[in-house]
Amino acid sequence: AAAELVAAGADLIVTGTAVEKSQDVASFISELTSSIRR
């Protein structure tokens, strides 16, 4: 989903709730940044 948002022109992705609910924040952020870089 993050890659789709970036491809659509998003300059910012709000992740607050997802980070708060994540059991493994580092893994969540890693997955997010990896999908954006593709």
From TrEMBL:
<protein>
    <submittedName>
        <fullName>Geranylgeranylglyceryl/heptaprenylglyceryl phosphate synthase</fullName>
    </submittedName>
</protein>
<dbReference type="InterPro" id="IPR011060">
    <property type="entry name" value="RibuloseP-bd_barrel"/>
</dbReference>
<dbReference type="InterPro" id="IPR038597">
    <property type="entry name" value="GGGP/HepGP_synthase_sf"/>
</dbReference>
